[in-house]
Amino acid sequence: MVRALLTDEGSRRAAATDRSGHRPATLPDAVVRATTVEEVVETLRWATASRTPVVPRGAGTGLAGGSSARAGEVVLDLSGMDRIVAVRPDDQVAVVEPGVLTADLDAAAGEHGLFYAPDPASAAISSIGGNIATNAGGLRCAKYGVTREAVLGLDLVLADGRRVTTGRQTVKGVAGYDLTGLVVGSEGTLAVVVGATLRLRPRPAATATLAAHFDGLVAAAAASAALTAAGLQPSVQELVDAAGLEAVDAARGTALRSRGAALLLVQCDGHGARTEIDAVAGVLAPFATSWRATADPMEAEELLAARRAVLPALERTGDVFIEDVAVPRSQLAAAVAGVQAISARTGVRIATVAHAGDGNLHPVVVVERGTPVTEGAPWEAACAVFDLALALGGTLTGEHGVGLLKRTWLHRELGEDSLALQRGIKAVFDPLGILNPGKGI
Ligand SMILES: Cc1cc2nc3c(=O)[nH]c(=O)nc-3n(C[C@H](O)[C@H](O)[C@H](O)COP(=O)(O)OP(=O)(O)OC[C@H]3O[C@@H](n4cnc5c(N)ncnc54)[C@H](O)[C@@H]3O)c2cc1C
C-alpha cells in the first residue's frame, strides 16, 4: 500500500514543473512521494493497470520541462529515496538511491579520498536520479566526462512494475547490449531509476586555477578553442560573459566585471597541475587582457562558486530560458558571435555562460518578470540559437535534455529514420506509453 499519495493542491503545484520556465496549464492529479522500491513497483503496476501516465521526478531542477506534469498524470517523486547505500574505496564505487543530492555523494566520497566527477553547477540541489536521466554534465566534465562515464550499473523499475538490473559492479564489462548507457539520458521515458552503482575517482593530488579576462566574449571563446587545439586538458574550462559577470557582482558583491568583459576560468589537476597551468597561461596570453593563476584552494573555490552562481544570479534579474546548445570546440567563437548577433537582431537580452572545454554553451534568454519565455520574440531568439548550433555542426542539447521544450526540433537533428528507431526502443521498454509521455523523443 503506497503511503505517500498526495492529492492536495499545494503538493500538486509544487511538483508541476521544473526550473525551465515552462508553466503547464493544469496540475497533475496526484504526487506519490516514494521512499522504497516497493512503493515505486506498486505505483507503476497500478499505473499500467489503470493506463495512467507517470512523470518521474528527482529534485525538479531540470531546464527542459522533463519533469513537468499536467492533469491526467501522476508525479512519482523520488527525492525521498536518498540513502547512500555504500561507498567502497577499494573498488572506487558508490551505491546510491536516486534521490541523493549530487554534492552529498561527492562529499561522502571525499571522506575516502575520492570524488564523484560529474558536477553540474546545480550539484547542491539536483539529484543523482535526475542527473542519470538527463546525462548531466558539469564543470569537471571537460576532463572526466559526463554522467554516462560514471554510471556502471542501474536498478530499474519498468513501466509495468518489473524490476531489472543493468550493467555491472566492475569498471569494465561488455556482456550484452549496453542498457545502462541507453537508460542514461532517457529522461524518465524508458524506466524509473531506483538505484545506481557509480564510479568514483581518486581526489587529485593538486589543483591550479587561472582566471583570464578578455575585452570581449569572442576573444575569450577563441582562447578557449586554442587551449583544446594545443592539446591541453584542464579539468575545468568555463566561460562567462559581461552580463553574467554583472549579475554575479550584483548578487555576491564581487567586482569581476571591472576586470574585463569576459572571464575564462581554467583549472588543471593532478601531479602536473602547476606545469599544465603554466602552459595554459602561455596559450591564453595573446588573447587575454589580464590573467592570474592561484594554487590557493580557497581562492579557487571562490572563483568556482562565482561561476556556479551565474544562473541563479541571472534569475534574480528577470525570468529566464536557459539554452543548452553544443558545437564542435573549434566553432566556439563563431557560436558566441552568432548568439550576440541574434540578440542584437531580435532585441532580446541574451547572456552567455559556457562549459567551454566541451563546446557547450548556455545562452540565457532573460525577459522581464511575467513575460512568457516560450513564445513571441524570446522564443524566436531561442529558436535562432538552435538553428545556429545545427548550422555549426552542433546539437540542440549538450546536457539538459530535450524534455518538452526542444521536442519539436528533434527531427531536425536526428532525422526521421533515427527518430523512428528511437520510438521503437521506447515501445519495447514501455509499450503502453506510461512513462513521461510527450517528453524526450
Ligand atoms: C542553477 C542551475 C544550474 C544548472 N547547471 C547544470 C549543469 O551545469 N549541468 C547540467 O547538466 N545541468 C544543469 N542544470 C540542470 C539540472 O540541474 C539537471 O538537468 C539535473 O540533472 C536535473 O536533476 P533533478 O534531480 O533536478 O531532475 P528533475 O528536474 O526532477 O528531472 C529531470 C528529468 O529526469 C527524470 N528523472 C528524474 N529522476 C528520475 C529517476 N529516478 N528515474 C527516471 N527518471 C528520472 C525526469 O522525469 C525528468 O525528465 C542546472 C539547473 C539549475 C537550476
UniProtKB/TrEMBL annotation:
InterPro entries: FAD-bd_oxidored_4_C, FAD-bd_PCMH, FAD-bd_PCMH-like_sf, FAD-bd_PCMH_sub2, FAD-linked_Oxase-like_C, FAD-linked_OxidoTrans_Type4, Oxid_FAD_bind_N, Vanillyl_alc_oxidase_C-sub2. Its cofactor is FAD. Gene3D superfamilies: 3.30.465.10, 3.30.70.2740, Vanillyl-alcohol Oxidase, Chain A, domain 4. It holds the Pfam family FAD-oxidase_C. One of its GO terms (molecular function) is FAD binding. The keyword Oxidoreductase applies. Keywords: FAD, Flavoprotein, Oxidoreductase. Residues 1-26 are annotated as: Disordered. Residues 24-203 form the FAD-binding PCMH-type domain. Residues 9-21 have a biased composition (Basic and acidic residues). This is FAD linked oxidase domain protein. The lineage of its organism: Bacteria, Bacillati, Actinomycetota, Actinomycetes, Kineosporiales.
